[in-house]
Amino acid sequence: MRFHEFGNKNQTTVMLIHGLGTTWEKSFGKVIPLLTPYYYVVAVGLNGHNPEEKSDYINGEKEAEQVEKYIQNNLDGKIDVIYASSLGCITALLTAYRRNVTVRNIILDGTADMSLGLFNKSASKVAGWFGEKIITGKMNWFLKVGGITPEMLQTFLYPGISRMTMKNAFYDAASMFNQIDKMEPFKAVRVACWYGSKEKLAARGAKKIRKTFPNGKDTLFEGFGHGEILLHPEQFCKEMKRFLNESPISPP
């Protein structure tokens, strides 16, 4: 895992965590310059998604442990907001819920409920092969189901992702809501769920998340697909500012 820092450390801190099959730079390269005049930005490169290192994504808990260590060692154990896209939502939620650090706000973008119940584990065995087909453009029909457009694939795709990372990430994403269903309600963090009108799985996931994290509200982006807000950097920053300018909760 890598942490990339931008801006003035005395400003409100925004951590950005990308999704599956992309990199921090592909996801946030156009967003960061618009945020840094107002915020101190920390962009996280998840394991298995860094061209400059050899690693694999294992699960969100291991990623959360590394995020916690960074916050403890570099941000005095607290952070103002974590924005997470798709797979990164697991790391963000666990970082807040484990309560080893103080997370005041979270924005979850595209919390797709991919659970297949008893078939999660068996499905993950073919996820690596399936992911490779997507990378080579042979599964575009499946991407439409998830609300992923060809433009998004062309803009964000990281072709260096390994089959092991894809397998582990799929199982982690598919199992996430099993964990959430067992969590006690946690009101000390304000959670916003963002999703596009074209991604039904994310809308379903947001409803489940709201049971555990009742403090916050959802935002629907009409006409958008999965994580498509990142293709619109100005709108992304406007929504980020709007969220942070709303009445914040008191720190726990």
Please outline the major beta sheet.
7 strands, mixed
Mean pLDDT: 85
User: Tally of extended strands?
Assistant: 7
Fold-level CATH name? Rossmann fold
Structure characterization notes:
Helices cover 44% and strands 18% of the residues. It has 252 residues and is α/β, with parallel strands linked by helices. It has one domain: 3-Layer(aba) Sandwich (Rossmann fold), CATH 3.40.50. Strand 4, helix 4 and strand 5 form a beta-alpha-beta unit. It is globular, with a radius of gyration of 17 Å. It starts with a strand and ends in a 7-residue tail after the last helix. 42% of the residues are buried.
Compact description:
The protein is an alpha/beta fold and 252 residues long. The protein contains 10 helices and 7 strands.
What would the keywords be for this entry?
single chain; 252 residues; alpha/beta; Rossmann fold; seven-stranded mixed β-sheet; globular
Topology:
Blueprint: E1 2-6, E2 12-17, H1 24-28, H2 32-35, E3 39-45, H3 60-74, E4 78-85, H4 88-98, E5 102-109, H5 120-135, H6 140-145, H7 150-156, H8 163-182, E6 190-196, H9 200-212, E7 218-221, H10 233-245
Parallel strand pairs: 2-3, 2-4, 4-5, 5-6, 6-7
Antiparallel strand pairs: 1-3
Helix pairs in contact: 3-4, 5-8
